[in-house]
Structure formats: C-alpha cells, structure tokens
Amino acid sequence: MDSLTHIALGACIGEAFFERGFGKKAMWWGALAQSIPDIDFISSFWLNTSEALLAHRAFTHSILFAILIIPLFSLIAERIHRPHNISYRKWYLFFFIEVFVHLFTDSFNNYGIGWLEPFSHLRFSFNLIYIADPFFSLVPVISLIMLIVLNRYNLKRKKYWKIGLLIPIIYLTFCTINKYYVDNYIEKTLLQQHLSTKRFFTTPAPFQNLLWYIVVASDSGFYIGYYSILDKKDNMKFNFYPSNVSFLNQVSDHENLQRLKRFSQGYFTIEKWRDTLVFNDLRFGQITGWNSYPSKFVFHYYLQHPNDNKLIIQKGRFSSWNIYKFNSLIDRIKGI
Fold first, then answer.
1. Per DSSP, what are the bridge partners of residue 279?
2. In what order do the strands lie in the sheet with 297-302?
C-alpha cells in the first residue's frame, strides 16, 4: 500500500480504538504506527538499487520487527501521556493492531513482504490489489480529512471512522472473490490451450480490480495476457516473451544480477535495448500492455549501466501514458 493509505487507515483505527476519551492524539499515534515499518526507505540513501529493492519490505516488515517495536511504542506512549487512565495492555493491543494491519495489507500487492526476515528471505504476496488503487484508498483518506476537520466531540466522528474502515474491508472482500474467480478461469484456459499450469500468477492491472494481468511460465519464456471479468468472449489470447537467459553470459556484475533474480522470484526476462542488456521483472506489469504487443515492462533494470537505475519501478509505471492510453485501459476494463 502507498504511504497515504497507511496513514489514513492508521488514523481511523486510532479514532476507533480511543474515540473521544483520548482526543485526536490517537489519530496521530495511529498514523505514526502505521508508517513505522516503511522506515526502511532510508536505506536507499546508502544502498545501491538492487540492494535497496531487497531491503524494502524486508526486516522492518517482519514479524520479529513487530514483536520488538510494539512494546517500545507502547512504553513511550504510556509515559508521554501520563497522567492518564489508559493501561499499558491497551496501548500494547492498539499498537499491535496498527503494526500488523500494515504488515497484512502490504501483502495484498505484488511487491512481496518478508514476514519471516531475517530467518527466511521468503516473500509473501497475494496479488489481490494494485499497489495504488483509488477504490481502496479514497474513502479512508476522505475519512481522515473529516476526522481532522471535525471537533473532537462531534458525534459524526464515529460515522467517519466506521466508513473509513468498513469500505476498505468490503472492497478487499470484492478483490478476494475476483482473485479466486480469475485464478480458476485462467487455470481452465491454460488447460484448454495446452499450456502449463505449474507456475503462473495473476494480479490486477493499474488502479482497479476488474482487469487482470496474467503471466504464465514456460521452459523458454513467459506467456502474458489480460483478462477482464467483464469479458464476454471466452477465447483469451496470450503473447509470448522469451526469457533470453543466454544473454546473461555477457554480464560481469553477478552480485547485482543475483539480487535481481531473487527479488523477481524467477519471473524475469532479458532484453537487448540497442547495446544495453535490460533485466525485466514481470511481476510489476507492462506499460500499457493491454493495448499493444510487444510492450515494455514497468520494472526494467539496466544491467550494464547500474547508475541509471534510480526509481526503476516508478520511472516505468506511467512512461508514455497519455489520455489515449488511459482511455484504452478503460475500454479494456469494459471487456471484449
């Protein structure tokens, strides 16, 4: 989830937990607690790009980190606000909910989260929701604004924190149902088209949960397609992208390459862009791939020019987008 969504959810949870008994201070504690796992962003100031990719959502998003930070936050808050009638146990439960909601919601998108760090580098990602989905985020943000504006004794505050938490839960339930339906449909389609069902994943295309991006692994590359829940035709098309792993023989920077392979969880291809080798992590989708073939991938890393790889995911996400490309996304969501 993006930082603003975490802040909004944290504030709504804080308001729900303490309501008028603690004023608006609970909102700020909730926003802070929801944000603390993302403190790993500071590692990008001294780590190179491939190291920073693995550092993000690693230890500070682990269960061990939560176990360490929750009692510390509880102790600090309990002492700062003395005298008060809030028990340490209540503080602990509050921060427990806040931190674990962050860890739980971050597992919904395709970046992955290291719950078991540092004991295991396994990343968990359920691919239920796009990393920035306005249908999930907008209502909590509006609720946050209203909770800031309204007086602490205003009776409407309860309505807004309830809306700010209930609507995202309903939307996540909707996303879970969609995910189950799409996975079953794709598995059936792969069998019909004589493609392997051993390794594939589905994840939403940008900003919504009706159009899904599908990647299917084969021995020599990957089949990529798009499926809208609103599609009327039952003849889904896949486009093939070769993995080109033989190109890696030209690369001397093995340490960065091994990190990228681990980060991609095996879903990667290698391409030549003029005289440059490019590593594509397929999990983050394509730049308007629903509209054109072949299409570049959002995540592309220059293997032979590592200094050019700052913000590699962000720089590709909306490259070459315009009103026509956006309209093409809307049209594809509507189904074919």
1. 270, 301
2. 268-273, 276-286, 297-302
Phi–psi pair at 133, nearest 5 degrees: -115, 110
Domain chopping of the chain, boundaries:
3-174, 193-333
Q: What is the pLDDT along the chain (336 residues), one digit of tens a residue?
A: 889 999 999 999 999 999 776 778 999 999 999 999 999 999 888 998 889 999 999 999 999 999 999 999 999 999 999 888 889 999 999 999 999 999 999 999 999 999 999 999 999 999 999 988 999 999 999 999 999 999 988 899 999 999 999 999 999 999 999 999 999 999 999 999 999 999 999 999 999 999 999 999 999 999 999 999 999 988 899 999 999 999 998 776 678 899 999 999 999 999 998 888 999 999 999 988 998 898 999 998 888 776 667 666 666 666 777 898 899 999 999 999
* pTM of the entire predicted model: 0.93
